[in-house]
């Protein structure tokens, strides 16, 4: 059995998620073949050198692949899938993986499963576990191969560099007439808010309901000496600036304390904070998936809890 | 310029979800439905683009129930036209893969310059409709997008990666975009505006295309086992606050 893994990279470094996909392929007894798209063969080789656990690498080099280009990458992954006919195509469930897995599934006539948290091989059937309904349910899908999966970052631990650099085979893909171009890479401005290095974070979620009660959250953060953060709905609703977002499309954090109120714990949020040393979650919904990840939890109303906690913290100083 | 916004209903996720008897679907008897939050962003972006450029906006849905009300909300939000694709009342559980050929057919008829829909929907194992439509229509597609602007034959948009990094991408039209966040948060619609639309007829179309073949029959749902998760603190807010404070003191965190 052979898995073709779309290898994401930035600034000359392969992503952790690519190494995780390699480990996942090995866990079902498959060969791991990486697809590296980069600007030139030298860059492909340098990246392949970081994939010691992989069995082989297919390289596609073109100026348009210097940074991730959804149109070019979809063509390259489609071409590699059609040429090499892997049993399973694997992408991370990242922005690129969201673009590529369903798109290439249609282009190649394969079935796909997204939000994958685990794989088991049962004869010719691949059982894929997916996190659906924002983590409230798990779907178990028996997929006949060949297929495609998009795997949640952090679903398995990455392999270390266990072997030498895999052999690289370059492949020609027609990338003429691309219908999009990347004009600029944007990095966040330094705003003085640094969640990534914060020792303590107090994060509030959608249940905050608006900006009217944000002062209650600010008071908890101040009494705790913590940075205030928000989950994606809080940022998308404009209640807090983007720089305070924790999660998949925000900042990944690993503080000593991650206290959270009104955050359900969607997989996209967990991806950004699940490695925190101590996680304490308050939610009014006893079925909130965050209780599966937190160390301590309490089912209670955040608007009653926040002032009570502020008072305790202030009195205890 | 013509923009199509694809809207989907999702179960309200703050409610308790249960799996039905055969384990293939959620128990829908008491479940509320709401506009998928990411489709809400797509709808807002479509209306913002209309206000900025004078583009026409058509909102599309393919729902077994609740589709009319959903599309009336879209009219109240400022879209020009709506179209409900009839899927049959019995098809309450349709994956994005099943519905994709129906949307493809409708979009080929409408021939919009830009298709906007939410980057994901959490209610099936495919979630991501935009990349499927990009492949079916053979149009360029970008997901995880914020900040869409329209130019002459192109859309300029921002694709968001982890760590707050993003890329500015110029895409030739027609194109399909999976939206993460609109340039501004979705606007509030007054109840009176919705009441004014009660008598409006929502146009419907019967699809000629078949549902896409998906893995619905090969998928079983279960409630995740969270035992071994959090140690639960009990009592009222005062008691929980006191216990949290104790834990923080024990760990030297305050």
TrEMBL record, chain A:
InterPro entries in the record: DHS-like_NAD/FAD-binding_dom, ETF_a/b_N, ETF_a/FixB, ETF_asu_C, Rossmann-like_a/b/a_fold
PANTHER family referenced in this protein's UniProt entry, alphabetically: ELECTRON TRANSFER FLAVOPROTEIN ALPHA, ELECTRON TRANSFER FLAVOPROTEIN SUBUNIT ALPHA, MITOCHONDRIAL
Swiss-Prot/TrEMBL GO biological process terms: fatty acid beta-oxidation using acyl-CoA dehydrogenase
Source organism superkingdom: Bacteria
Entry keywords, A to Z: Electron transport, FAD, Flavoprotein, Transport
Molecular functions (GO terms): electron transfer activity; flavin adenine dinucleotide binding
Residue stretches making up the Electron transfer flavoprotein alpha/beta-subunit N-terminal domain: 3-184
Pfam families, A to Z: ETF (PF01012), ETF_alpha (PF00766)
Protein name: Electron transfer flavoprotein alpha subunit apoprotein
Family named by the database record: Belongs to the ETF alpha-subunit/FixB family.
Residues that, per the record, bind FAD: 206, 231-232, 245-249, 262-269, 283
Cofactor(s) needed by this chain: FAD
Gene3D superfamilies: HUPs (3.40.50.620), TPP-binding domain (3.40.50.1220)
Cofactor stoichiometry and binding remark: Binds 1 FAD per dimer.
Automatic annotation (TrEMBL), chain B:
SMART domains: ETF
Molecular function (Gene Ontology), one example: electron transfer activity
Domain of life per record: Bacteria
InterPro entries: ETF_a/b_N (IPR014730), ETF_b (IPR012255), Rossmann-like_a/b/a_fold (IPR014729)
Coiled-coil residues: none
Residue ranges of every copy of the Electron transfer flavoprotein alpha/beta-subunit N-terminal domain listed in the record: 23-215
SUPFAM superfamilies assigned: Adenine nucleotide alpha hydrolases-like (SSF52402)
Protein name: Electron transfer flavoprotein beta subunit
């Amino acid at each position: 059995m052979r898995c073709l893994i779309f290898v994401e990279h930035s600034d000359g470094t392969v992503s952790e998620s690519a190494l995780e996909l390699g480990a996942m392929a090995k866990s079902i007894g498959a060969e791991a073949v990486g697809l590296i798209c980069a600007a030139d063969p030298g860059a492909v080789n340098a990246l392949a050198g970081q994939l010691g656990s992989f069995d082989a690498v297919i390289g596609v080099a073109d100026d348009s692949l210097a940074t991730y280009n959804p149109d070019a990458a979809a063509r390259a992954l489609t071409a590699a899938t059609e040429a090499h006919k892997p049993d399973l195509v694997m992408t991370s469930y990242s922005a690129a993986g969201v673009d590529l897995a369903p798109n290439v599934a249609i282009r190649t006539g394969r079935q796909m499963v997204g939000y994958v948290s685990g794989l088991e091989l049962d004869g010719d059937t691949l059982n894929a576990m997916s996190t659906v309904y924002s983590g409230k349910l798990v779907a178990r899908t028996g997929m006949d191969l060949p297929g495609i999966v998009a795997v949640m970052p952090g679903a398995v631990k990455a392999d270390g560099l266990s072997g030498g650099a895999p052999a690289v085979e370059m492949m020609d893909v027609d990338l003429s007439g691309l219908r999009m171009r990347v004009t600029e890479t944007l990095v966040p401005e330094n705003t003085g808010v640094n969640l990534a290095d914060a020792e303590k974070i107090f994060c509030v979620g959608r249940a905050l309901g608006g900006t009217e009660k944000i002062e209650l959250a600010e008071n908890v953060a101040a009494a705790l000496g913590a940075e205030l953060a928000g989950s994606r709905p809080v940022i998308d609703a404009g209640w807090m600036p983007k720089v305070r977002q924790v999660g998949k499309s925000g900042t990944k954090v690993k503080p000593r304390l991650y206290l959270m109120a009104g955050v359900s714990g969607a997989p996209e949020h967990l991806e950004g904070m699940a490695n925190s040393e101590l996680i304490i979650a308050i939610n009014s919904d006893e079925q909130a998936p965050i209780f599966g990840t937190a160390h301590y939890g309490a089912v209670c109303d955040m608007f009653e809890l926040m002032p009570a906690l502020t008072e305790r913290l202030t009195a205890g100083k | 310029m013509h923009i199509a916004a694809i809207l989907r209903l999702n179960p309200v996720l703050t409610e308790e979800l249960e799996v039905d008897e055969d384990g293939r679907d959620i128990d829908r008897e008491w479940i509320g439905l709401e506009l998928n939050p990411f489709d809400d962003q797509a709808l807002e972006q479509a209306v913002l683009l209309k206000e900025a450029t004078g583009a026409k906006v058509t909102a599309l849905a393919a729902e077994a129930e609740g589709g009319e009300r959903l599309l009336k909300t879209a009219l109240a939000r400022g879209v020009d036209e709506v179209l409900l694709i009839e899927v049959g009342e019995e098809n309450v559980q349709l994956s994005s893969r099943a519905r994709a050929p129906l949307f493809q057919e409708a979009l080929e008829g409408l021939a919009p310059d830009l298709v906007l829909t939410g980057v994901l929907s959490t209610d099936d194992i495919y979630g991501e409709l935009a990349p499927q439509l990009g492949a079916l229509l053979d149009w360029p597609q970008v997901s995880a997008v914020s900040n869409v602007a329209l130019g002459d034959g192109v859309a300029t948009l921002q694709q968001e990666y982890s760590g707050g990094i993003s890329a500015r991408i110029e895409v030739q039209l027609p194109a399909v975009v999976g939206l993460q966040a609109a340039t501004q948060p979705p606007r509030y619609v007054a109840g009176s505006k919705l009441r004014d639309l009660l008598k409006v007829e929502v146009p419907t179309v019967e699809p000629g295309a078949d549902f896409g073949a998906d893995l619905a029959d090969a998928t079983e749902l279960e409630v995740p086992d969270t035992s071994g998760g959090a140690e639960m603190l009990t009592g009222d807010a005062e008691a929980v606050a006191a216990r949290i404070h104790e834990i923080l003191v024990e760990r030297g965190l305050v």
